[in-house]
Amino acid sequence: MNPKDKSRIVGAETVRMLELGHPWVVADGYTKKWRPGKAGEIVELCDSSGRFIASALLDPAERIIARVLDRNPMRLDSKWLIKRFQNAINLRKNHADLKNSNAYRLVNAEGDGLPGLTVDRYADYLMLQLYSSAWRPHLKTVTDILQELISPIGIYEKSRPQNTRGLEATSDSKKYGNLLAGRAAPNRLEVMENGLTFLVTLEHGLNTGLFLDQRNNRRDLMKRAAGKRVLNLFSYTGAFSVAAAAAGSEQVTSVDASASYSDWAKDNFAANRINHKQHNFIVGDCLTVLAKLKQDNKRFDIILMDPPSFSTTAKNRFTTRGGTSDLVASSLHLLHDGGLLITSSNHQKVDIADYLKELRRGALQSGCEQRVISQLGQPEDFPYPVTFPEGRYLKYVISVK
Predict the structure, then answer these.
(1) SS (H, E, C) 166-183
(2) Are the beta carbons of 102 and 121 closer than 8 angstroms?
(3) Which residues make Cβ contacts (< 8 Å) with residue 179, sequence separation at least 6?
(4) Contacts of 248 (CB under 8 A, 6+ apart)
(5) CA–CA separation, 122 vs 125, rounded Å?
(6) Which of 128, 229, 332, 349 has the fewest CB atoms found within 10 Å of its own CB?
(7) Cβ contacts of residue 296 below 8 Å, gap of 6+?
(8) Average pLDDT for residues 332-345, to the nearest whole number?
(9) What is the pLDDT of residue 323?
(10) How many other CB atoms are found less than 10 A from the CB of residue 160?
(11) Averaged pLDDT score across all residues of the chain
(12) Alpha-carbon distance 212 to 105, whole Å?
């Protein structure tokens, strides 16, 4: 191939962002003039004078049209990939607190120099997710390397459909996971986190049933929950609820709009030999349930909410922007003085400053004082470059009423 066939000129603003270390090239007027290329091709990004800036993975049909892999000319071959994967493995080995946990993120896309690709470990299985079709031509090479380095029982890929908002409520039984290599996992695979057992699925549903980026935050909750009455909103499969109950919470009330998730949560309680009948499970819209709990004069010592960025139920539509303040206001009325309100969001486009404004609106709306005592985020196996603010997406705020 003629070296010039690899080069793609980017505009001055993109040059500035790339030189500041950002790994994305977003489609614009300059990229419309690029020579045609195939997804997965390595291109060399240049300024208008032809000066080399970076090597990137091309994805011509997407908004993020190229993702930087290296600041030097390169070939995307086994040698290059092995080095990146080994670096990721070493980071977890040397810096992540994975004691009593065999479920964690092994490769975190941009955070490990492999933008658009994540690899999660669930016990003896690996789960790949491609956030860019540019990785598909390299999928076999990636799979072969992971088999060589990790020797898992099986490797899955879980596809990410475009319109996840509309699918979330009806996707539990649909098969999104595809076995790439090795033996199939059981329908409910047992994994360990912080010494607790959780059931995950690698084939069905958009998600596996356990959000790995909350591992350290669940550990923090366990330090606070003993003897407390805990309300867990948007409880999903009950991971936070199990953590609180296992730590000695007097009673945990778990609220989720999905009956199937509520049943899954009960199974997670049983997997840890915790009698779920000693705790409460409510299926319903969280705002509606909060109003009913207030009417019934219920009070809690800890209220935790980890809603999705967007969700719709029969009665309400929730978005992080705007919806968080209403949840906070309704929750504060149910919290004992001196109780803890724990709020979390994984919305990438809402930074911590804007998120705190939502908490402030909720406090003012309720007429209650709210004092932040801790801000946490994602664990060590979810690293992000300091030049990539989008990588710091998880917000976990603990405040006292």
Answers:
(1) HHHHHCCCCECEEEEEEC
(2) yes
(3) 154, 155, 156, 203
(4) 225, 226, 227
(5) 5
(6) 349
(7) none
(8) 97
(9) 83
(10) 13
(11) 93
(12) 7
Distance CA 246, CA 39 (A): 47
HEC string of the chain equals: CCHHHHEEECCHHHHHHHHCCCCEEECCCCHHHCCCCCCCCEEEEECCCCCEEEEEEECCCCCEEEEEEECCCCCCCHHHHHHHHHHHHHHHHHHCCCCCCCEEEEEEHHHHCCCCEEEEEECCEEEEEECCHHHHHHHHHHHHHHHHHHCCCEEEEECCCCCHHHHHHHCCCCECEEEEEECCCCCCEEEEECCEEEEECCCECCCCCCCHHHHHHHHHHHHHCCCCEEEEECCCCCHHHHHHHHCCCCEEEEEECCHHHHHHHHHHHHHCCCCHHHCEEEECCHHHHHHHHHHCCCCEEEEEECCCCEEECCCCEEEHHHHHHHHHHHHHCCEEEEEEEEEEECCCCCCHHHHHHHHHHHHHHHCCCCEEEEEECCCCCCCCCCCCHHHCCCEEEEEEC
Tokens representing 97?
Answer: 């607190």
Tokens of 280: 């409460």
Domains of the chain: 3-70 (2.30.130.10), 78-187 (3.30.750.80), 211-400 (3.40.50.150)
Sole residue written with tokens 């309680």: 269
With a CB cutoff of 8 Å and minimum separation 6, the contacts of 297 are: none
Q: Please give the Cα distance from 18 to 315 (Å, whole number).
A: 45
With beta carbons less than 8 A apart as the criterion, state whether 252 and 230 touch: yes
Q: Is the pLDDT of residue 130 over 80?
A: yes
Q: Which residue has the tokens 């290599």?
A: 181
383 token code pair:
């690293």
Amino acid at 245: A
What would the two tokens of residue 349 be? 């486009």
- Read off the pLDDT band of 174 (50, 70, 90): confident
Q: Which amino acid is at 148?
A: E
168: pLDDT strictly greater than 70: no
Q: How far apart are CA 348 and CA 129, in angstroms?
A: 18
The token pair at 358 is: 């939502």
For 367: left if phi > 0, alpha if psi spans -120 to 50, otherwise beta; the answer is left
For residue 242, give the amino acid letter.
V
